[in-house]
Amino acid sequence: MIKTTLNIAPAPLKAQRPFYQDLTFQVVAGMVLGVLLGALAPDIGKQLKPLGDIFIRLIQMVVGLIIFCTVTHGIASVRDLGKVARIAIKAMVYFEVVTSIALVLGLVTINLLKPGVGMHIDPALLHTGVTTAKDGAAAVPTGAGDFLVNLVPNSAIEAFAKGDILQILVFSVLFACGLASLGEKAQPVLHVVDTVQSALFWIIRQVMKIAPIAAFGAIAFTVAQFGLATLLPLGALILEFLLTCVLFFALVLAPISAYAGFNLLKLMRYFREELVLVLGTSSSESVFPQLTAKLTRLGVNESVVGMVLPTAYSFNHDGTCLYFAAVAVFLAQATGTALGWEQQLGLLAILLLTSKGGAGVSGSAIAVLTLTLAATKTIPVNSIALILGIHRILSAMFVFTNIAGNCVATVVVGHWEKAVNRETLRQELDTGYQPA
Description:
One of its GO terms (biological process) is L-aspartate transmembrane transport. This protein is mainly α. It is globular, with a radius of gyration of 23 Å. It has a single domain (23-32, 50-431), classed as Sodium:dicarboxylate symporter (Proton glutamate symport protein, Orthogonal Bundle). It has 19 helices and no strands. Helix 1 (23-40) runs parallel beside helix 9 (211-226), helix 3 (49-78) runs parallel beside helix 7 (165-182) and helix 3 packs across helix 9 (211-226). It has helices at residues 23-40, 42-45, 49-78, 81-113, 144-150, 156-162, 165-182, 187-207, 211-226, 235-259, 264-270, 272-281, 288-297, 302-315, 318-334, 341-357, 365-376, 391-416, 422-431.
C-alpha cells in the first residue's frame, strides 16, 4: 500500500486589528475626553460645538441622495410593484403596532415610578421662549390633512434641498416604480444610480474617520453648557427613562427578534459602532448610510432594505414615543397637573398622531412635544422649560432606541417576506461585523 501525504497549508489567520483602531473604541474615548474637558474647562468646551455640527452636516449632505439611490435601485430591480406594495403595508402595520406598544409602556412606567411628584413647580415662573421648531425648521403639521399634503413636495429639487426624508422617499418610490415599468430600458439608469451610490458610500467612509472628533466636540459642549451639577435634580427622570428603554428592549424588541430567528444582543453588537455614535451625536441621520450597507451585508434583500429602512426613519420612532409619553406625564407630575387615566388615554391618542407629524423634521422632538401639550390643553406648555437642560441626554437614549428598533424592523419585515438569507445572517451575527 502506498501512503500519500498531502501537505495542505492552513488558511492564513486574519490579523486582528489593534483595539485602538476600532471605531467604537475611538468614539467612546472621544466621548470620555469630551466629558472631562466640558467639566474641567467649560469655556473651551462651549467652543467645540461646531465639531459635532460639521460632522452631522457632512452626513446630511449625502443622506437624501443615498435614500434616493437605495430606494430607486431596490424597487426598480424587483420590477414587481405588487411586492413593493406588500412590503410597504407590512412595514407600516409593524411600525404602528410597535410604536403604540412603546407609548403604552412609557405611560405605565412613568406612572409607577412618579419621578416628578413632589416638585411643585409653578409653570408661570418658567421661561416661556420655547420654540415650536428647531433652527427655523418648517412648522410641524398640525393635522392629518396637513400631514398628507406635506408628503408631496412642490418639486423634487425642493425636497432634496430641504432634506425632507418623507418627501424624498415619496419621490424616490414614484421614480423607482416608473423605472420598473420600463423593463430592460431602465438598466442604463440603474447602472448610473448604482455607480452614484458607490461614490456616496466612499464619501461616508471618509467622513466616518472623524466620528470620534465629532463625538468629542458634541459631548464637551453639552457638559460645558449645562454642567454636571445641573443634571442632578432631574436625575430621577433620566434614570426612569433609561429603565423604560431597557424594558422596551427586553420586553418588546427581544421577543420580536427571537420570533424572527435572530438574537437581539448579537444584532446590537453587529451595529455597535453606529449605536455608540448616535449616543455621542444624538443624530440618527449620521448612521443611515452605514445601516443600509450593513443590513444588506447581513443577508436582507436589497429591495426590503431600500423600502423599509427609509420608511422606518419617518414612522418607526420607538424611542421617541417612549420619550413623549414619559416626559409629558413627568411635566404633569412636576406642575401638579391632575392627569387621570381618561386624560392619559386621550394623550395616547394624540401622541399616535403627533409622533408621526414630526417625521422628516430634524431634531423636532421638542416641537412635537410642544404641539402635543398644546393639543391636550391640560399640561402647561411652559413646563417644557424644565427638561430643556437634560433633553440632550434623553435624546441620546431615544435615538439609540430608534436606531436599534429600525434595524430590528428591517430584518423582521425581510423575515415575513422570506427575503433574508438565513445562513448569511447567522454567520454574520455569530462572527460580528468585520470591516472589509
